[in-house]
Amino acid sequence: MIKIKKFILCGIAVITVCVMVFAFQVIYFGQSAKPEKSDCIIVLGCKVYGSTPSPFLAWRADEGLRLLKEGYGKYLIVSGGKGEGESISEAEAMKKYLISKGVDSSKIILEDKSASTMANLINSKSIMEKKNFKTAIIVSNKYHLKRASLMAADQGIKATYSGVFVKPYKSHEYVGYIREVPALMKYYFLKAYSKMF
């Protein structure tokens, strides 16, 4: 019985350490990410309410706009398909939002077929290749950047990163951080599993 208790406690300790390590990766990467001048800026999609960008999506689009205005990139690739309950694609919602902010439509490239972060990056990479873009800045919420960076690296995208933290929705952000830890662990596990088999 004592051995079983020790085994359980040891297992809990290992899991706790793993969670802390992955949580640190998520937090540190998001906080330390710095954009560098690139050929394009990829803004990853998020929820649209009908045809209106959610606060998270609006903040991401605003960050893309800031980077564009400050000369970090010449083009914005807005990436995201049409999900359940959305009247238009996330990419289209971002495009309309950015045009309303004064962005020239010729500077916005639509990627409106994706239904996941990986698809965002695969399809954006295809656009980059067609446009002869060599480098990109990837924009998302800070908690999302670490996993996005691994996916981008897997696709051979040379990228730097810029994240947002939506202050009016802190509770949603904290939930995002919590959910991202098991998502990152799952990504590492599946990647390791695929290499084994």
TrEMBL record:
GO terms for biological process: Gram-negative-bacterium-type cell wall biogenesis; peptidoglycan metabolic process. CDD domains: YdcF-like. The keyword Membrane applies. InterPro entries: Cell_Envelope_Assoc, DUF218, Rossmann-like_a/b/a_fold. The keyword Ribonucleoprotein does not apply. The chain crosses the membrane at residues 7-30. Residues 39-160 form the DUF218 domain. It comes from the Bacteria. One of its GO terms (cellular component) is plasma membrane. Keywords: Membrane, Transmembrane, Transmembrane helix. This is DUF218 domain-containing protein. It comes from Clostridium scatologenes. The lineage of its organism: Bacteria, Bacillati, Bacillota, Clostridia, Eubacteriales.
